[in-house]
Amino acid sequence: MTTEIGKELRKLRIDEDERLLDMAARLEKSSAFISAVERGTKTPPEGFVELVIRVYRLAEDAAASLRRAADRSRKNFTLEADSLLARDTAGLMARRMNSLSEDELNNIFQILSKKDAK
Amino acid sequence: MTETNDFIVPPRRWAEIGGIADNLRHQLGQATTPRVPVIEIIERVLDQRLGLVNFEVGSHEEMGQAEGLTCPKGEFIMLREDVYEGVWTGEGRARFTTAHELGHWVMHTNVPLARARRGDGTPTFRLAEPQANQFAAEFLMPECFIDAHDDEDALIQRFGVSWEAARNRLRYLHKNGRL
Fold it and tell me: Angle between the B92-107 and B128-140 helix axes, to the nearest 10 degrees?
């Protein structure tokens, strides 16, 4: 009953032949924290995935799949909007998010994925 | 464990539990090793190599008084953070707790469990906690490595256990005429 990020993190650890203790030391977290993320009882905080990618020097593919797994395990996303226009836009997006159809979401995802790949 | 809550499990003779512990040591190639690497067995072998169990670590907030926890279905073994760190540094008490959880995993998963309380008249050979303690003692301190001249310090050196565990083991063996 774990999360996608939990599964990916555990897989990475076992591929690296590390104990919970070893991964905890490398990431400077407690072993209970690493275990909780693996089990899916804790959602990793902002920046955790990037820390894993950096410390384990993950190649682009592996990094992308870890980021995707992390996104899929999240329900809440935090946006820092630092201008008036950004705040208006973020608010609009947040309100519209749950009323978008599957097709519309797909469409937006395609547009943003292309932009991301550049 | 100071807990008074326990579970009624299928009855086992103490000698039978000794046999289970010995078998497991044999299967794991540890028959001739006095100081058995108990956490390596769980985390490195049963989890990482064999995929038979998920090894997990819990915080104090999650686990409270419980130092270890074994899933009744056998899916995971969890140790409290301090116990986990202690066992990897070879601390005697943590080694015993770890072996105790291994005992639950070996003997008490996928069996019928009924609630009981320590001292409610249920004989100890039918209770999960005393059975797991006996397993831990047999697994960490096999009789074949102990003789009549040994004292607590000898056992502590040989097996990496606490003074209390060593004393209990010697008492048990003397009382039953095994030394």
Answer: 120
Size of interface A-B (CB pairs under 8 A): 35
Whether the Cβ atoms of residue B122 and residue B166 lie closer than 8 Å to each other: no
Spell out the SS3 assignment of B47-101.
HHHCCCCEEEEECHHHHCCCCEEECCCCCEEEEEHHHHHHHHCCCHHHHHHHHHH
- Within 8 A by CB and 6+ apart from A17, the residues are B48
Phi and psi (nearest 5°) for B132? -65, -35
Interface of chain B toward chain A, CB-CB under 8 angstroms: 43-44, 48, 55-59, 62, 78, 81, 84-85, 88
* A26, A55 contact by CB (below 8 A): yes
User: Model confidence over B20-60: pLDDT tens digits?
Assistant: 999 999 999 999 999 999 999 999 999 999 999 999 999 99
Q: How many CA atoms lie within 13 A of B158 on its CB side?
A: 19
**Strand duo B76-80 + B54-58: pairing:** parallel
Residue B136 has pLDDT above 50, yes or no: yes
Task: Output the six-digit token pair for B133.
Answer: 């303690």
| Contact check, Cβ <8 Å, B58/A32 | yes
CA B173/CA B13 separation, integer angstroms: 15
Q: Indicate the pTM of the whole model.
A: 0.88
Q: Which residues of A touch B81 (CB under 8 A)?
A: 30-32
| CB atoms A14 and B48 under 8 Å | yes
CB contacts, 8 Å: B56 with chain A = 35, 38-39
Residue-wise pLDDT for A6-48, tens only, equals 999 999 999 999 999 999 999 999 999 999 999 999 989 889 9
- B44, B48, B56: residue with CB nearest A35: B56
Core vs surface per residue A4-17: b (16+ CB within 10 A) or e: bbbebbbebbeeee
**Cα separation, B37 vs B29, whole angstroms:** 11
